[in-house]
Design brief:
The chain is an alpha+beta fold. The protein has twelve helices and eleven strands. The longest helix is centred in the first third of the chain and has 53 residues. It is rod-shaped and about 155 Å long.
Length: 441
C-alpha cells in the first residue's frame, strides 16, 4: 500500500482519476439504493392496484360465462394468450375444469375466487413462470458496471486535461531552479483561466530574473577586466619605488596585495566565463596541461606523474589551466608544498590531483574546503598567505562544467590529495553550474 500510495501521490492526475472513480462508485451506490427502495415501494403499490383491478375484471367475466363451457374455455384461452400467463380453473370441489399453459403451483402469483351474486362458483389461478420468459438477473448490474467504467475512463481524460497545465508549470519551475533561466511556459490550447494568468506571471518573473542575472554577470566581467589595467600600473609603481630606494618592506607588502588582487580578478573572470557558459572545448593533452601548470608555478617537471595510458581529453584549456593552478597554489599555501601532480583514472574518468606535504585534512574538511570563502587558517595568517577561500570553489565549478567533480582525501603515507575529475568526451550542453555556487562566487 505504501508503494501504491506513493505512486498515486506522485501525480495530480492520478489523484484526480482516483477521486473521480470513488465519486462515480459512491454516486452509483447511492442512486441504486434510492431507486431500489423508492422504486420497490412505489412499484409494489402500483402492482397490487393493477393486480386487484385485473383480478376483479377477470373474475366478473368468468362469472358471466361460467355456465357456458365453450365461452368459458374460450375466455380462458384468450386471457392466457393476451397476457402470456398460464391459467387454470377449478370448481368449488377443487376439480380441474380447464388449463392453459403449464401447471400452476399452489403458490400461484395470482389466485382469485369466481363469484356470482355472493355465491362462490370456483377458483381461477394465473402464473407467469411457464408462459413469460424472465431476463437474466446479472444484466442490470452489468449495465451499471459498464456505465460506471465508461464514465471513469472518460474522467481519466478529464483529469489529465485538468492537471496538464500544472505539470507543465511544475517542470518549468524545476528547470528554473536548476539554473536554466531561459525556461518559459507554453501552455498552448490549455492556457485557460487562472492557468493562463499563472503562466504569464511565471514567464514575466523568469524573464526579469534572466535580465538581472545577465546584467550582473556583464557588470562583473566588465569590472574584473577593467581592474587589470590599474593593477598593471600598481606593479610598475612598486618597481619604480624600489628603484628609487623606497622602503623594501613596504614594497613587498604592496606587491603581495597586487598579486592577491590580480589572482582574485583572474578567478572572477573565470567565474564569469562559467556564468555565461562561454566554454570553448577542444581536443587537449592532459600531460601538456599539467606540464604547463607546473611551469607557470615554478615547480619542476619531475613533479608530474602520469598514471594513465592515454591522457587525451576535450575541454576548455583556459579554465582547466586555472583549475590546475588553483590546486597547486592551494597545496603550496596550505599543504606545506607540492609533492606531486598526478594524472590517474578515477571512477571511469580522467582525474588531476595534487599530493601535498602537509599534515592532511581534518575530519569533515573533505567537502568543506570546496565551499566558497572557506579558509583553513582563519585570521591574519590566512590573509598574509593571500588566501581568500575562492580557489577550490572555482575548481569545483570548472570540474562540474566539464562533467566531473572534485574530491579530497588523506593519503596513507601522510599529506592530503586534492583533485578533480572530468569527462574525456568534454562538457555536455545540459550541465550548468549550480545557482548557489554562482551567487556565492
Amino acid at each position: 500500500m505504501s508503494r501504491l500510495g506513493n505512486f498515486i501521490r506522485a501525480r495530480l492526475r492520478r489523484r484526480l482519476f482516483l477521486w473521480f472513480g470513488v465519486s462515480i462508485l459512491t454516486t452509483g451506490l447511492v442512486v441504486g439504493t434510492v431507486v431500489s427502495v423508492m422504486g420497490g415501494l412505489i412499484g409494489d403499490s402500483a402492482w397490487h392496484q393493477e393486480v386487484n383491478r385485473a383480478r376483479t375484471f377477470v373474475s366478473n367475466r368468468l362469472a358471466e360465462v361460467w355456465d357456458d363451457p365453450v365461452r368459458r374455455d374460450a375466455l380462458v384461452r384468450s386471457v392466457s394468450e393476451d397476457l402470456l400467463v398460464s391459467v387454470e380453473l377449478r370448481d368449488t370441489s377443487g376439480a380441474l375444469l380447464v388449463r392453459t399453459g403449464g401447471h400452476c403451483p399452489p403458490h400461484a402469483e395470482v389466485s382469485m375466487p369466481v363469484e356470482r351474486g355472493g355465491v362462490r362458483l370456483g377458483t381461477a389461478r394465473a402464473c407467469f413462470e411457464h408462459a413469460r420468459p424472465r431476463g437474466a438477473p446479472w444484466r442490470g448490474p452489468m449495465v451499471l458496471i459498464l456505465a460506471g467504467t465508461t464514465l471513469w475512463m472518460a474522467s481519466g481524460w478529464l483529469a489529465r486535461r485538468l492537471s496538464r497545465p500544472l505539470d507543465t508549470l511544475a517542470q518549468a519551475v524545476q528547470q528554473l531552479g536548476e539554473g536554466k533561466l531561459d525556461t518559459r511556459v507554453q501552455l498552448g490550447r490549455h492556457a485557460t483561466g487562472e492557468m493562463s494568468v499563472l503562466a504569464d506571471a511565471f514567464n514575466e518573473m523568469a524573464a526579469r530574473i534572466e535580465r538581472q542575472m545577465a546584467d550582473q554577470r556583464e557588470l562583473l566581467a566588465a569590472v574584473s577586466h577593467e581592474l587589470r589595467t590599474p593593477l598593471a600600473h600598481l606593479r610598475v609603481l612598486v618597481e619604480l619605488m624600489r628603484d628609487a630606494g623606497g622602503p623594501e618592506r613596504t614594497a613587498d607588502q604592496m606587491e603581495r596585495e597586487v598579486v592577491e588582487l590580480d589572482a582574485l580578478v583572474g578567478e572572477l573572470l573565470a567565474s564569469s566565463r562559467l556564468d555565461f557558459g562561454q566554454l570553448t572545448p577542444r581536443e587537449l593533452d592532459g600531460k601538456d596541461l599539467a606540464a604547463r601548470a607546473l611551469e607557470r608555478t615554478g615547480l619542476p617537471a619531475e613533479a608530474l606523474s602520469v598514471e594513465v595510458p592515454e591522457a587525451k581529453l576535450v575541454g576548455d584549456a583556459t579554465l582547466l589551466g586555472r583549475a590546475l593552478a588553483n590546486l597547486l597554489d592551494n597545496a603550496r599555501k596550505h599543504g606545506q608544498g607540492v609533492e606531486a601532480l598526478r594524472l590517474l583514472e578515477r571512477d571511469g574518468q580522467l582525474a588531476f590531483c595534487v599530493d601535498d606535504r602537509g599534515p592532511g585534512l581534518q575530519p569533515g574538511e573533505e567537502t568543506r574546503i570546496f565551499a566558497p570563502f572557506y579558509r583553513k587558517d582563519r585570521g591574519g595568517e590566512a590573509r598574509e598567505a593571500g588566501s581568500l577561500g575562492l580557489g577550490l570553489a572555482l575548481v569545483q565549478r570548472i570540474a562540474r562544467a566539464h562533467g566531473g567533480d572534485t574530491f579530497a582525501e588523506n593519503r596513507p603515507g601522510g599529506g592530503a590529495r586534492v583533485g578533480f575529475t572530468l569527462r574525456r568526451e568534454g562538457p555536455t550542453s545540459t550541465q550548468t553550474p549550480p545557482a548557489s555556487s554562482r551567487a556565492q562566487a
